[in-house]
Amino acid sequence: MSVLPEFSALIAGHGRAVLLTEDGEFLSPTKANAAALLGGRMPLVVHGPATLKRLGNPDVAVLDLLELFAFVCPAQSVAPTPAGLARALDMTLPTSQETAAMALKDMAEALLARLAEVGIPAGQVRTLEQVYDWEQTRSQGLVVPVEHPVLGTIELPGPAIRLDDNAYGGGRETHLPPPGLDEHGAAIRAWLDEP
Q: What span, in angstroms and rounded, lies between the C-alpha atoms of 86 and 109?
């Protein structure tokens, strides 16, 4: 069983980049369109700073396999390229940017398997949507329904810390919606004006 969801993978060389989407489609990001193509994706990369620099430093988050390698294989050197990482993991060397992008998930799985071999648990990596839909998250009250005066029933993050054994973890029995614009403004201004 894979512990990784379908991530996109990004490889950026000198003058050319390849983005493998979660659906298996290859896209060609450039400095002009990298941020737009990446959108909300958090792609797997090898050497995040160099990858993003080659794309004009778009303001996006990435999952850098070199960081995972440094955690799993401390004090072991590796060339900061997809081929270098493949060599360090005894995997088939990629022959193009496309094959490198296709190999990144396998490299991540290999690193997580090494953690499991030495007894370090690594559960499934979930997207934010998967976390909020996960049965365990809901059973622990980490998502709570709240009645909003305009939006109706909405879901908000629940209390993450439990201070005692009561059903509400030391928090409220009924959660309140976020305040409307300036809903408490007069009270706050009056409090600030108190001597």
A: 12
